[in-house]
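I can't quite decide. Please look over this sequence plus structure tokens:

:::
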Amino acid sequence: MSKDDEEKNARYRPCVGMTIFNAEGFVLVGERLDNPGAWQMPQGGIDEGEDPETAVFREMEEEIGTRAARIVTVIEDWIYYDIPPRTAKRLWGGKYKGQRQKWIALAFTGTDDDINLEAHSHPEFGRWKWVPLEDLLDYVVPFKRDVYSRVIEAFTDVPQMLKESEKEQA
């Protein structure tokens, strides 16, 4: 990694994003408690020394109360985005200007009853629902639109892959 890349990475918090698909091919989104009306897919920081595949299940349990899923595919590249400066200052005291995310598509293997937004001592979401992948941009805050567009493009075939996989297992 070049010195420029290292400097860039230092300004962006390492994070994992989860695109959790149910059996119908819909994606889980939650409405943020700190920003009512703002919906997003679960995401969270990657701890020092932790790999994204480990972080995704830890964060999934913290945010939605379950690890009932399996990894389907991962976007190889990191996706970077800037957070509005006032929000970044409130969240991280100015240490980061945004996040660099590793996005992972997961097949949800549990039931809706397994989802518990209050499982963690500091819940992030007040409500959740399943939405079509192609409708994600209708929910997301403006500064995450480019990220979500890339995720939609990368994971557009996942619902069909899951349906085909289910048929093979039946």
Remarks:
- The longest helix spans residues 52-64.
